[in-house]
Specification:
four-stranded antiparallel beta sheet
Length: 116
């Protein structure tokens, strides 16, 4: 089993920055793809960014150049650095851990609100 706990959300003004953290329990996440997804009111949950166990990163077009995903394997933690935030980034952000034979796990989510 893997448990994921997000933190770092909050209220920020347009143009501001936040760093989200996802603390994971269970050593198997070292072999898992980690990611951040978000869901705005009335919309489906969608990809923000992922990072593989080998360090390959993938970003949604809407956040490229503004957001950076990273992982600290020793701390079992994944981060999402969000810069130049826009009101359209407002959503609940979810951490995900996925492995083809290891399972698919989600955190409880953290709210990010960007005021205009």
């Amino acid at each position: 089993q893997v448990q994921l706990v997000e933190s770092g959300g909050g209220l920020v003004q347009t143009g501001g920055s936040l760093r989200l953290s996802c603390a994971a329990s269970g050593s198997i996440i070292s072999g898992m793809r980690m990611g951040w997804y978000r869901q705005a009111p009335g919309k489906q949950r969608g990809l923000v960014a992922t990072i593989t166990s080998g360090g390959s990163r993938n970003y949604a077009d809407s956040v490229k150049g503004r957001f950076t995903i990273s992982r600290d394997t020793a701390k079992n933690t994944v981060y999402l650095q969000m810069n130049s935030l826009k009101p359209e980034d407002t959503a609940v952000y979810y951490c995900n851990a996925w492995g083809s034979s290891l399972g698919d796990y989600w955190g409880q989510g953290t709210q990010v609100t960007v005021s205009s």
